[in-house]
Amino acid sequence: MTETEAIRVAVPRKGRPLEAVLERVADVAGSHPAGSRAHAGDADDADDIAGVADEVISTLRHEKAITKGQVEPAADVYQRLATYSDLEDDYAPEYTLLRDDRRGMPRRIVFDSLTVDVDGVPVQFVGREEPFRALRTHEFALGFDSADLVLEEVVELEPEGVGSLADVNARIDPMNTDVRVVSGLGDTVYHTLMARPEILPPGADLDREFVADYEGDLCISPRYERLVEAVLGTRPLEGVSFAYPDDDREEEAAIADVGLGVYLTMTGSTAREHGLILGDHLFPSETVLMENIAESAELSGAERVREALAAEGHETEIAV
């Protein structure tokens, strides 16, 4: 381990958001100037760090398949955990056990930590179940989590919707939290307007203006109610009532029954199977780098790490 104290960055323990972070770490290693050292395990170049990232991703996908009963494990969970771990190497990836919420609550191996030099600064990426909340409680200066959580929890609701990351940060009450969004990683699916074609007047577009003139039910997942209000704004939602899918139904099927709704899409194929047309992408659901500005101001090297981890040339834009 280098003598410089490592900067700790909170990251998800599993899933696509963690994979996006690991891919970003590999990209950062590849962009170091000549003479800088990018260290992970015995790695001293970008290829080795990319290999470590791929190893963690592959391991966690394998463990997910075991947890879901898709793969028969060759050893018990403690033996696998011991096989994956190398506690003698400060730069090797570490894993831990959690109870999964599937039936029977099986133990699941998830990400714990990985230390990498970022622009000459040792950075320890630490797995957390709720990275955003860990930043809010000042446990970390930097972290990655879903952009959705910011709108669901801390963005103030206003008559007009949000249109950019700057808008999102501007609507965070500084008395509520010191956390701000820095940059998105581009691992994007979208909260998208979708509707049965017959509810649209001839020649009309399925966009925010249509919702502003619409009166009736809008079908959404209950957890996204505040997000939808923040993105669309409260004024366009006057005259709109939220409807929610039953627990045992696909969201797209429920939207088809209601006529109009908002749900996550990647290709939109499931929505089309239910006879729905796709409209505006309202908000990108992606992993974002976040900063607790009160903590980072007191942390040496935090600005360098933040600038290195922020995806160059990529800013989350929200269509308006």
TrEMBL record:
<dbReference type="InterPro" id="IPR058892">
    <property type="entry name" value="HisG-like"/>
</dbReference>
<protein>
    <recommendedName>
        <fullName>ATP phosphoribosyltransferase</fullName>
    </recommendedName>
</protein>
<dbReference type="Pfam" id="PF25936">
    <property type="entry name" value="HisG_halo"/>
</dbReference>
